[in-house]
Structures are given as structure tokens and as C-alpha cells.
Amino acid sequence: MKIDKKIFLTLADMAKIEVSNSEEKQLIDDLNTAIEFIGTMNKVDTENTEPFSIMSKVNYALREDTVTENYEKKKLLANAPEFSDGFYVVPKTIE
Amino acid sequence: MQEITSISALELANKIKRREISVAEVVKAQLEIIYKREPIYNSYITVMEKEALSQALIVQKRINDKELDDSPLAGVTVAVKDNICTKDTRTTCASKILRDFIPSYDATVIEKLKNAGLIIIGKTNLDEFAMGDSTRTSYFGETKNPWNIKHTPGGSSGGSASAVAAEEAHVSLGTDTGGSIRQPSAYCGLVGFKPTYGAVSRFGLVPFASSLDQIGPISRNVSDCTALLEIISGHDPKDSTTVGQKSFLYRQYLIDDIKGMKIGVPKPFFEENMEEDVRKHFIMALETFKDMGAQVEIFNFEEVKYCVQVYQVISCAEAFSNLSRYDGVKFGHRADEYANLVEVYKKSRGEGFGYEVKRRIMLGAFVLSKGNYETYYNKARKIRRLICEAYDKAFERYDIILSPETLKTAPPLTEKKSSSPKKSTSLTLNSSVNLAGLPAASIPCGKDKNGMPIGLQIVGKRLGEKDIIRAAYAFEQARPCLRPDLI
């Protein structure tokens, strides 16, 4: 599969990234190189193999899901580009 | 003054314990060296002068009160890669998008360093979001290799490696997703250790690829590295992927005896197109291990042939998901101009991320999208299982597996930046280890004709850190680490 401008714009939309004109051509070229490269995996026979999910041999230790931290709201909000009255501010989403 | 910063971390901690030197003197000496050398090397994004000086007094009191008698590195300075959260100190991931981000909590490893009385002296430079192998994708400029400033220190933990090599810190923490601790350690003549997946907590590490990322130590010798690894390891209730064991005692394995140790050398790694000097020193290293009484055997390991492709797919897929949190709303960069919420996301991310990060996120979007998921993402996960099984099988026969850490020594900074995985010098050797969740270290094993250091990779079985430590320590006794001529 080859990435053309249309597929590229769909990917950029999925990734929520606005790409400048100067980056677009290079990105399409680099993505196509990468896709050609990862496509070579198809040579491997994986007929009877289940996909890997977690490090199954590790003895994981779970804990109760209890609240242990009390983060200071003010400090958390201080990292936001825009906030007001204790809330994050975003452009209007409902007309 | 310079002696304070050039002696080993363990030696320095002993001097502090014996009251030959105070923690404040150590910190001041370290800061002096940092300010002298930073204009040359650019190891740090943030130097934590004020915090380090105030911590010095607190740690000194704890030492005087005998609270830290059991801590091997109390009072020693440590540099931390800038993708590990430090409370009230900015954590940028070397990205424009996080250039002003100030975490409200410490990563678990930071808590552990503080509890053990180490002094965090600064946050080090890296490739943006740890995506790269040269530290050149950083928003904060490139870092220089202290062995030769015309060369890269490697990456992505390039700042953590150059800081330790340039004696701007005694030890440091890096992170390793596909070789990002080991490769810069090799390029800078250091010892770098990527622990078993789950041996060290990732809580507070800004994630790149969660099933591959691990935090680990970088140092100028094996003993310092082992001491730091011991401090940061162990179960963390805040990271459910950590192993159940509360702590690990690694220093008891600093033994100069590897008689009878079984060493495997994967044939595909041996056949890689490596530089002549790298090959020569690797063969010499194998001879050294044989002379010390180990059994060395070359074995077939075809299953790793596609590990770079698998790594690319899995790491980019996980990055696509992990980096979706940067939306210009809760924290990080927000674009100045936008018409609606979607534009806030798109423009902020478009302006905030560098080229390589965008490329990887988009490749992640591609392999996860409908129609491609089975062909690429699930295919990669299946091959990952085959790689894990191949390692399991190999470790039924061997205690450790050896390879060169990289195929080449540190390239010049003038070499063209490349996004092509095929051109990467170390991914083949490194990434299969992350895919299988295994521990691995890089230790110095010589220099090339231009005087640049060469690294040797030692891979262990899952939670087999002790075998790596034994082999690395014994090798170091036979072939001590070398130091660069510093400016």
C-alpha cells in the first residue's frame, strides 16, 4: 500500500496534526519508505502464533483501587494554557 | 576541586560518610564544572542549582543523623533525563509542546533517589520524546560527545550519557525503548543498564511506548551502575507492570569470577555489517571472556531478523496512543490562533511537535487504522511473541548473550539526519531486547582508530540482572574503562 495525498490527509486528521506544506512531501516520502520496510514482516510465518499482549511470565502485583494522592487543583491548572474559575477553557463546542 | 567530580560515585559517597568532604562542597564543585563545560557539551536542559544546594543541606543532616548509613550513594550528584517527572521542576521531554510543563509530582524513581540521599543536579537533554538515536531532534539544541565534540553522544539519552562522561554528574538516569540507554553509553564510553521490563517503576516517566520503555542507570563504572540500579529497582504499587519483589540486592554479584559461565553469540548479530574496529574489539572481548573461563558459543537466531520492523510498528502504535494527550488544553503548548476546538488540537500539535515525532505518530495512525491493523500491528505482535520464545529457548542454554552494542562508533554531528530505520546503527542489536522485556547492559570494550569508544552488549534472561553484573564486573577487572580528555 502506498500513501498518496488523500491517505496522508486522513492520517493527519486521525493524528490531529496540522502539517505545513514544507513538511508534507518529506513526510509522505518517509512514511512510504517506512511502510515498505515494515511490509517485509509478511515473510515471517505466523500462522499458528497468537499476538503478544503482556509479559506473561512476570508476576504482577495488583493493588486496591483507592485514592492515595490529593493533587492541588491550582497547581494542575497552572499548567493549562487557559483556565478560568477552576476550569479549563476551550473554544465553544455547542452552538 | 576537579578530583571530587572525577572519582567514582561509590568512592565519593565513602568520602562523604567519612566526613572528608561535605555534601554542599560536592554540589558546589559539581555546579562549577557544569557551568564551565555546559557551553561546550549542552548535556542539560535545566540545571537545578537552587534545589541541589538546598537538598545538600538536608542530605548532610540525614547523613550526620546516621539515617543514610546503608545508602551506598548518599550525597552523590545524579542527572535525570528530562522525560522523568520532577515535582516543581520543569520536565520538557525536549519538546516545544512541553517546554513550560511543571509536574506536580515526582516519578517513583525520583522519590527513590531522594530517599537514598542522592542530589538531583539537573535534567538532561534527549531526542524529543525519546524518539531518536542522536539527541539531535531536541527542541533545546544538540548535545556534543565529550570524547570528541564533533561527534554525537548518541540518543535518545544523549544528555544523560554526555553529562556523566563529561563529569558534569557522577551518575545519571536514562530511559530505553529500543536502545536509548545502551547506545549513548557505548558512544560515550560508559556503562549503561536497561533493566528487565517491570524491574523499575515507570510511574512518572512520560510514556513513549509503554510496553517497551524502561528507566535505567548510566555510570562510569560497573559498581556505580549496580549501586544505582539497586536503588531504583523494586515493586511500585503505582505501576502495575512492576514485578512483585519489593527490592533487589545486586551488589553481591560484583564478583570477579565467571568460570563456567555459558555465553551465546547470535549469528545474525555477528554477521551484521559492522565497522572493522568494532568487529576486532568484539572478537577480543569474546577472547577475554574465554580466557576468564567462560564457554562461548555462536548460535543461530534467525527469529530476530525482523525485530526492527516489529519495533517500528509497536513503538509507533503505542506512541500514537500515548501522545494523544497533548491537545493544547490541559497542559503544554497551545497555538495562538484557532477557530474551533479541533483547530486547537491540530494547530497546537502541528506547532508543538517536531518532525520526527509527527512522522512516528502518523506511522502509528497508519498501522492501527482499519484495514492495516491485521497486516501490520497484529503481525508485529505475533512476531514479537516468536522473538520472546526464541530468547526463552536461547536462555535455556546460555547465562548471557553477547553482541556489539552498536555497529559503528559515534557518527559525526555533520552526518545527515535520517528517519530511515534501515540506516540506524544499533536498532537491530538493541530493539529485540526491549521487545522481549529482557535486561541488557552496554559496557566499554575498547576504542576505534579515531579514539572513539566501542560498546559491548550483555543481555540477560528475564530478571537475570545478576548474570549481567557478574560478567560486566569481571570484564571490567580485565579491561578497565577508559576516560576521555576533557576540556
Describe the secondary structure blueprint for this structure:
The complex is a heterodimer of chains A (95) and B (487).
Chain A: H1 5-14, H2 21-39, H3 73-78, E1 83-84, E2 87-88
Antiparallel strand pairs in A: 1-2
Chain B: H1 2-6, H2 9-17, H3 23-41, E1 44-47, H4 49-64, E2 77-81, H5 108-115, E3 119-124, H6 158-165, E4 171-176, H7 182-187, E5 191-194, E6 214-219, H8 222-232, E7 262-266, H9 267-270, H10 276-291, E8 295-299, H11 307-322, H12 341-352, H13 355-368, H14 373-397, E9 400-404, H15 427-435, E10 440-447, E11 453-460, H16 465-478
Parallel strand pairs in B: 2-3, 2-4, 7-8, 7-9
Antiparallel strand pairs in B: 1-3, 4-6, 5-6, 5-10, 9-11, 10-11
Estimate the mean pLDDT confidence of chain A. Answer: 90
Strand order of the largest sheet of chain A: 1-2
What is the fold-level CATH name, i.e. the topology of the domain at 5-43 in chain A?
Answer: Histone, subunit A
CATH topology of chain B: Amidase signature (AS) enzymes
What average pLDDT do the residues of chain B reach?
A: 95
- Which structural class do you get from the secondary structure elements of chain B? alpha/beta
Order of helices and strands of chain B: HHHEHEHEHEHEEHEHHEHHHHEHEEH
Low-pLDDT windows of residues of chain B: none
Order of helices and strands of chain A: HHHEE
Helix content of chain A: 25-40%
- Separation of termini of chain B? 15 Å
Level-1 CATH class name of chain B: Alpha Beta
Sheet of most strands of chain B: 11 strands, mixed
Do you know the CATH architecture of chain B? Alpha-Beta Complex
Strand content of chain B: 5-15%
CATH homologous superfamily of chain B, by name? Amidase signature (AS) domain
Q: Beta fraction of the residues of chain A? A: under 5%
Report the total helices of chain A: 3
User: So what's the overall shape of chain B?
Assistant: globular
Largest interface: A-B, 58 and 74 residues
Keywords (chain B): ATP-binding, Ligase, Nucleotide-binding, Protein biosynthesis, Transferase
Family (chain B): Belongs to the amidase family. GatA subfamily.
Subunit structure (chain B): Heterotrimer of A, B and C subunits.
Enzyme class (chain B): ligase
